[in-house]
Amino acid sequence: MKRNLTRCRTICLAIVALILAPLACVAQTPVEPGIPILAYHRFDPSTTGPTTVRTPVLERQLDWLETHQYQVVPLSQVVDALRGGGRDMLRADTGHAVAITVDDGHVSVYTQLYPIILRRNVPVTLFIYPSAISNASYALTWEQLAEMVKSGLVEVQSHTFWHPDFRKERARRTSDDYRAFVNSQLVRSRSTLERRLGARVDMLAWPFGIIDADLQSAAERAGYRAAFAYEGGCAVPGSPPYALPRIPVSNQAGAAFGALLAPASARKPPP
């Protein structure tokens, strides 16, 4: 009887060990650090919307980042880190790096966001499509952009020339015409921004988050060193350089805002 109990105990321990072994491997596997790249669009003191963040909520989001030891860094430094030139930024024991990007060039960037980042000394990157600047009633002016760039806290990068839907453009154009159109959107935007603002433009945010292999190749040929999606969680070393993930932000605050960043490391970047 005693021998049978001992044998039974041995078998049970072996089964438990087999069950726990995979869990131990998971627990011991290091999590590759990543950097959240937050994507905003518009800001308003009182009104919210799918892509509009209330200004007081933005302040609370920035407070949350500071409280949880996130340091807002320029997007260009994130790209350098992901390429291996600044890997210290990716080390978990140095705190958390996060980048802030804003798409389109809505006037609220100047009236609402800019005073906040001046007061807090927070760098941001604006992805701009130049056709709207000083033309559309909702858009920034070239003078406003120049002032923000001069502050040293704002860098301006490309969002194509007039924010096309590349899927629709591909469907209605011949192959050659479509390739020429894509090239024009990428090159014309970059050259216009560099000429008007006197700053280097080498990063791109894809309109509507539309990305495919042909577009990524076109961005590389046009001289960009990085391009960004509109979803996908944290950017990690090995993320596709012309489809780097970002985290869309809306009117969340507190734990809801933190939840955007917390699970991001488990998400896969877009193809």
Alpha carbon gap, first and last residue: 61 Å
Mean pLDDT: 86
| Global outline | globular
Number of helices: 9
Q: What would CATH call the architecture of the largest domain? A: Alpha-Beta Barrel
GO molecular function: hydrolase activity, acting on carbon-nitrogen (but not peptide) bonds
Function: Is involved in generating a small heat-stable compound (Nod), an acylated oligomer of N-acetylglucosamine, that stimulates mitosis in various plant protoplasts.
Organism: Nitrospirillum iridis
Pfam family, one: Polysacc_deac_1
Outline the secondary-structure elements.
Elements: H1 2-28, E1 37-40, E2 42-44, E3 52-54, H2 55-67, E4 70-72, H3 75-82, E5 96-104, H4 108-120, E6 124-128, H5 142-150, E7 154-158, H6 166-172, H7 175-197, E8 203-205, H8 213-221, E9 226-232, E10 244-248, H9 254-261
Parallel strand pairs: 1-5, 1-10, 2-3, 4-5, 5-6, 6-7, 8-9, 9-10
Describe this structure in words.
This protein is α/β, with parallel strands linked by helices. The protein has two domains: 1-30; 36-266, Alpha-Beta Barrel (TIM Barrel). It is built from nine helices and ten strands. The protein has helices at 2-28, 55-67, 75-82, 108-120, 142-150, 166-172, 175-197, 213-221, 254-261; strands spanning 37-40, 42-44, 52-54, 70-72, 96-104, 124-128, 154-158, 203-205, 226-232, 244-248. Strands 1, 4, 5, 6, 7, 8, 9 and 10 form an eight-stranded parallel β-sheet that branches. The longest helix is centred in the first third of the chain and has 27 residues, at 2-28. Residues 1-6, 8-31 and 263-271 have low confidence and may be disordered. Keywords: Signal. GO terms for molecular function: hydrolase activity, acting on carbon-nitrogen (but not peptide) bonds.
